[in-house]
UniProtKB/TrEMBL annotation:
InterPro entries: Ppm1/Ppm2/Tcmp, SAM-dependent_MTases_sf
GO biological process: methylation
Biased composition annotated in UniProt, kind: Low complexity: 294-316
Protein name: S-adenosyl-L-methionine-dependent methyltransferase
Keywords linked to the UniProt accession: Methyltransferase, Transferase
Molecular function via GO: methyltransferase activity
Length: 343
């Protein structure tokens, strides 16, 4: 039975919420992400687009898309520097849902890509999306367990990406999985995002979740909380939710997370930590690419500007050593950013 021939469950419809925003971005005069697949997949589904989690507020859409773009850029940087070094890599994407990241980024034949999600989501994805070309695996797994990692070879540097994932996991399950991944793979990077305590406690005020049974399970206020899970995890960069889009905490383009209650909520200590995007190193990266090792005083080689071009230098845990945005002409991170003089 095809997704277009039957009504979808709430879980299945939530999967299309990402695509709905990506399609709006693609249809805009100046797309940020420019995902050409989202609208194709939406056209195949029988969705109730009047649900609250199908967002049309341009501020919310921009914030979501900029986070997508930042994750793509960080990943592309990792792929590029290993391509230059002629080192094969693995990409593991947790909670892949219906995302087409494996088609958006430029991945060569030396990239092993593994998308993982729950059996329900994987089954639905297979109905809707053709298998990606190249060395690609779509795997179903129980995210409360870790034994499924044994099916993934641990012979390469591995980039782990978990977008919009940990907030739905019980803390003890999430911590167990993170430790298991760092133990399983020898080295690489770990990119993720999280919601803070303010959002977790006030989720019932969020218009996007109104009328939904969904709730957040795990709040993380500081990227250094990941470092505490394993000494091999080293924070490279942390970008707060409003910095991703290059706006002030209470700027005109800042999304009203809690609707009409946002101004009041903004007075709560910790409001600025409602959500963050973080990048961490783990294990030992090749010594020939010291710019990727955040444990040194050198730079991570990553840009200190948001995807909209606005600087967030000095925020979170962004480190110095390079000047200017490290983007190539097509908007991706350059594999060889120009080194500035020591400060």
């Amino acid at each position: 039975m095809s997704p277009s021939s039957t009504a979808l469950s709430e879980t299945e419809e939530v999967l299309f919420a990402r695509l709905f925003m990506q399609a709006q971005d693609t249809a805009s005069p100046a797309p940020i992400l420019g995902d050409s697949y989202a609208q194709q997949y939406i056209n195949q589904a029988n969705c109730n687009f009047h649900r609250n989690f199908f967002i049309t507020d341009p501020r919310h859409v921009k914030a979501f898309i900029c986070r997508n773009k930042l994750h793509d850029q960080w990943l592309q940087h990792f792929l590029d520097i290993h391509a230059v070094a002629k080192t094969p890599v693995t990409v593991l994407q947790l909670g892949c849902a219906l995302d087409s990241r494996n088609m958006r980024v430029n991945r060569g034949s030396s990239v092993r890509w593994v998308d993982v999600d729950t059996p329900e989501v994987v089954s639905f994805r297979r109905q809707l999306i053709p298998a990606a070309p190249g060395d690609y695996t779509l795997m179903s797994a129980d995210m409360t367990e870790t034994s499924w990692l044994d099916a993934i070879p641990a012979d390469r540097p591995t980039y782990i990406i978990a977008e919009e994932f940990w907030m739905w996991q019980k803390p003890h399950n999430g911590k167990k999985l993170i430790r298991a991944m760092v133990n399983h793979f020898p080295r690489g990077q770990f990119a993720t995002d999280m919601v803070g305590s303010v959002i977790k406690e006030l989720h019932w005020l969020m218009p996007i979740l109104k009328g939904s049974k969904l709730k957040f399970e795990w709040a993380i206020n500081d990227g250094r909380e990941f470092e505490s899970l394993d000494r091999r995890l080293k924070l490279v960069q942390e970008v707060r939710w409003y910095e991703v889009i290059g706006t002030a905490l209470r700027g005109g383009e800042t999304p009203e997370i809690f609707g009409r209650w946002t101004t009041l909520a903004s007075r709560i200590p910790g409001f600025k930590n409602c959500a963050q995007v973080v990048l961490l190193d783990y294990g030992v990266l090749p010594t020939s690419r010291r710019t990727m090792d955040s444990s040194t005083t050198e730079s991570s080689g990553l840009s200190e500007t948001s995807v909209t071009g606005v600087s967030f230098k000095g925020s979170g845990s962004s480190v110095g050593g390079f000047t200017g945005a490290a983007f190539s002409s097509d908007g991706r991170y350059s594999p060889m950013p120009t080194r500035s003089s020591k400060r």
